[in-house]
Protein 1
Amino acid sequence: MKSTPSVRHNIAANFAGKAWRGIFGLAFVPIYIKLMGVEVYGLIGIFMSLTALLALLDMGLSATLNRELSRLSVAEDSAQESRNLVRTFEVIYWVIGFLIGIVVVVLAPVITKHWINSPNVSNEIIEQALLTMGLLLAFQWPGTIYTGGLRGIQRQVLLNVVQGVSTMVRHFGAVLVLLFISPSIVLFFYWQAFVALFTTIVLAACLWKSLPKAEKKSIFDKGLLVKNWKFTSGMIGISVMVVLLTQLDKIILSKMLTLEMFGYYMLAFSVANVLLSLVNPVHSALFPRLSQLVAGGSEAEISEVYHKGCQLVSVILLPVAVTLVFFAEEMLILWVGDPVIVSNAHMILSLLIIGTVINGLMTLPYTLQLAYGWTKLTLYKTIVAVILLVPLMVWMVQMYHGIGAALVWIILNVGLLIFEIPIMHQRLLKNEMGKWYRRDIMLPVLVVTLIGYIAREILPADSSKLVMLLVILSTCILAFVASAWATGNLNRKAIDLLKGNNR
């Protein structure tokens, strides 16, 4: 394998890429709502849910490719196996993408008639939008395997450059289409489909060029599927259960609420989901590194990298999360400005953020489990959670609508926090659980929560937007400093983690 960039470069590139895509995503939401309306924006929410649901078809292959290419990168004479592995998974993903497009097109009339509830948007427009969603999903889907491959060989700087340019073209182009051709959701999805196809082709070229040269031509090799079946099968189960777990609220809400009310929920979800974008760069950079250490490193070294990652996640995630929880209404005022949207979405946003921040803090323990190839714990916990969650979600949505769904999201993640960590540390990094709870998580949570509460209390009533902005920024900065202090030696550890020799 070619020499890979350092963990420092990968984390920096992942954060820059996530920030770039997150800023664009949030910045353009008010524009889309203004041009097309919040009810039509609900159709974009439907697409987001469809995309997540179709992750069921991922079958764990992208995670398997990521892990195996990471392992092969430190193995001798692995070029042919690496290229055959990519070819094998590539064929499977393109077939799946083609089938996805056909299924969505066939089901579009059924979904329009029997699922989506919209008194103001015609069934014809909804059906046409769903048809173009099918085209978009078919083009977008194969890109998943190339993304996983580039992460596995730690070409994450290149990956983020491609994704960043794609994001810019996707959003700016969509606005130009909506402004100068027609404010049509159908044209919006056609543009997204064109950009998705181009991006997938570029990602494919980047991955194949980055792989090591081999003497023979790459081939589809069923033996590689058999060889990696144990890990892949675990990831299949995890993918199915996690997608169901995280998308049940959208499935139930899209049926039980009007398209307009669903649009408010998805608006709040799009903001809360940014928190996971802050965590994913650390996961993406440390998963290959931990996989390499598990393959040949000492437990002490694994523990060190694990705790560094957990503390880094706390410092990155908690200040933003606490600020959003305490100032959700003010943030929506500054962002969208529409009092109707603010009134309908701010409480949902606060609750979703609480659940999402707990979920984000669990990311590195999940990363560690995958690095060890241990998938059963995540699989079993999600099966139990889905069984319990369905009736609870239906009941809470009937009682409290979108707020009920957000409350269930909190209950779910609190349960995972209480039960998963002790079970995990009975097998992996024994005697490290106390340090994770106390130093990595609980102390910084308490400190930043106190700062957020005090800031909320001192914000004057009927403040101007400038005052709101200053208080919000000050709160986030103070919370960041406090969380860094609360994790003790984080500054030294973070510098160690980001050194160029951590490969």
Protein 2
Amino acid sequence: MSDIEWATENLYAAFSDLPKPESINACACCMTADEVETLLAKDLRELTPEELSSYASSALLTVGDISDYLYFLPRILELSIRDDTWWPTIEVSGVKIGMMDPASWPLGRFEALLGFFHGVVNHLLESKNYRRIDEWMCAVAAMKVKMRPFLEKVEANPDAVLEYFNANAKGLSDGRLENAFWEDPRPGHDEIVKWFKSDVVSEILFDAYGYRV
């Protein structure tokens, strides 16, 4: 079993004590009654990207509450790594998770969440899918958890560092990352900018391009 497969199963297990909601309050402009009925009728792991998209996009805003969002979260995160065209993007989900202060969750649930994100980063690095690192790192920062363990994984792979740098090179000279989902206040953003200027990353950039940030 791969890291991402193990992390996904562990995530479902950690959230398995949460009951399926009996109802979901939803703004009619954001979700139809049929869409809500489908979410309540089907097993969690059988929900398709199309069936879950409207809910996952509007949850905690005009649809649902924390209790039902936590129930659906394992499937939302699984779809986020399995389908890179799915909406909402992982940055949106990261913001929603951050709104719930995940560090205050029961320890097993919080550790499963972190384990899933670590599993994703490992998967992206192993599969050389470096272009997705930017979005997932933005999501990690939005959850307001420690960034350093994730950055250390990336800096151990020079090719991943260069891809991540190229996605942000335009703004880094001004101390800015390019992902449009960054919101203020943004300590995670500033920590990543500082990381790009660290000795380890600077050497990787210098070796590849002959200059440092």
